[in-house]
Amino acid sequence: MNTEDRPRRRSGLRLAVAAAVAALVVVSAAGVAVAGSDTVAAPAAAARTDAFTRDQVGDIGLEPNPSGLPFWASPDIKVCATALGCASDQPLTVGGTAYVFITLNVPGPYGTGVSNGTMNVYWTLLGGAAQWPADWTSIGSVAVPASPGVTTITIPWVGVPDDGPAPGAHFCLLSRWVSPTDPMTFEGPNTVANTTANNNISWHNVAPIPVNAGTSTGTTVPFAVGNVANVPTDNDLVFGQGADRRFENVGGKVVVDLGGQLFQRWQQAGAKGTAIRPIGGTKIQILDLATARIAGIRINPGERPQVLLNFTAAQPASTVFPITVTQFGPGHAGAQPTDIGGVQYDVTVRRG
Hints:
Layout: H1 5-24, E1 25-27, E2 33-35, E3 38-39, E4 77-80, E5 97-106, E6 115-125, E7 137-146, E8 149-158, E9 171-178, H2 191-197, E10 201-204, E11 206-212, E12 219-224, E13 233-241, E14 253-257, H3 259-268, E15 273-274, E16 276-280, E17 283-286, E18 293-299, E19 306-312, E20 320-330, E21 337-350
Parallel strand pairs: 11-21
Antiparallel strand pairs: 1-2, 2-3, 4-5, 5-8, 6-7, 6-9, 9-10, 12-19, 13-18, 13-20, 14-17, 14-19, 15-18, 16-17, 20-21
């Protein structure tokens, strides 16, 4: 054999083998191996799952939430002083560690089976309108499987921050369930719209407020008034309470301090409102917690100033007085005023 022919024959053999392999296996544009004329099926897409947190008692996870009820006092979020849990929200301690408990419900109306994902929890100043994500700060997250039924998730909150001018720590919380098989409707800057459109998101603005009976100082707490539009907006603060648990029955009083800038704007807009009375300086007394409204507070884009609410009471009581403050304003430029966030203050009156 001519030695010069050997490399040529080896090269020809390699080409023949390569051609045979090419005839047997072809890789499609989608990355699927095809052997001869038989296609190897791609792995099936993961089934759609649906885990949800409730906006209100009775919420079954419909998107958008059709109830028309306040969406910012989710019963599926609470804050406790220890990892052992609690029946209802407990007061926070600045610099301490609290524990956020989130209840995840499976299945919702849009999927079945175990949902694997990550629960994320955030805080913002206690109050109304909040921009996503600018106004929110992460507390923590945890990856968990959520099986059919109810899954309770606990996330520690280490180093609870100071919320500003009022003593103590008072915050709004937001939970977001993020899962590749449980997608969310697109999130925009309006936390209100995000919460009502997605059963993966819940907002919890419930603050326990202990008041010592018979003291003149009472308890002072904040309410942040925000703007979710891109233009200056006029906003109302609307008060409410249950007919069967009137704070006035124990000599309860609420005084709102708007602060210098907001009080001046309110006066310039005509000092409008219902069941209220200015009592000097920048303070306004609430005369009827069931019907009171402070109207026409101008808030500029990017602002979220805090007003202060002072609670006093004459007599101790064994019941809890849920008092709500809701911010009504436009959700975007040109829109009619709607509920854009609020707070439920759970007031307890103890002996002074």
